[in-house]
Hints:
With 324 residues, the protein is an alpha/beta fold. Helices cover 38% and strands 20% of the residues.
Amino acid sequence: MARLFISYSHKDDALRAELDKHLALLRREGAIELWSDHRILPGSEFDKEISQALEAAEIILLLVSADFLASDYCFGIEMRRALERHNSGDAVVVPVILRACDWQHSPFKHLNALPSGGREIAKWASLDDAFLNVVQGLRKLLAARPAHANVLAAPGRTAAARQAGERSEVRSMRPGASRSSNLALPTEFSDEAKHEFAEETFAYVKDYFRGSLDELQRRNPGYSGKLREKTAMAFTAVVFKSGQRVAGCYVRLGGMMSPNGIAYSSNENSSDNSYNEILDIQAGAHSLLWRPQMGAFTGRDPAKGLSQEGAAEHLWSLLIAPLQ
């Protein structure tokens, strides 16, 4: 069994909880023992508990985001010690990129990150697909470890590290000392949180369309695209072939039908009361997602919802489908 330590910013707790769920089968199989600071008991010394768990870990996951990089504790203490143990061969550090940030200039830029290619979790169309990719990567890592691997007996470990690991082992066997890491409870999202999520997603969709139109023009001679912002919360996109309009749409945030929804009309000249698709916010147990109300769900289970990138790709597919 490999001891796995999770280092993360508490601002990313919702994504950490999702990762915990996806690691559940590995725990049930006895392949890993998962530790994060949720296992610290009331009255315990926070720094001491974290230090002991970090010293005993064989695999250390860094859940990377701008908040992680900005955290003095995550970056300056946990990450620094994790890399020291990685460089000495006492543990393996695996960055898991949650959200876009400048991690490629960080001290762990040379490490192979998950998901594959270091693609941020938040940019996957489905969070389930993203975390499955992480789990698959960890399974490969676990399978590559020698069957007899045990960090407590690893050659070259310092006496202090061995003793810390041994203390952790003893503590874990004491009655009442062991605790499940499966302690996440559903998150209640405020109206303000939903409003901010809607605005962030709309801005992402607009940038996604702009980039997609540019790439469409580059890859397909004779085609061109134009995006025009009508207001801060509304834009149109038009595709031309040899100068002739062949597709267009009108995308806006809010409206009478869904104040925090994103409405899509398949004509750039449509009125605000006309739409062919509406994306509504779907509150999951630990995260906010998007649910299409009108059109097909591009083959995915609608109960799982769409991430920001999934929502953008869904709307883009409505624009491009008639041309394909």
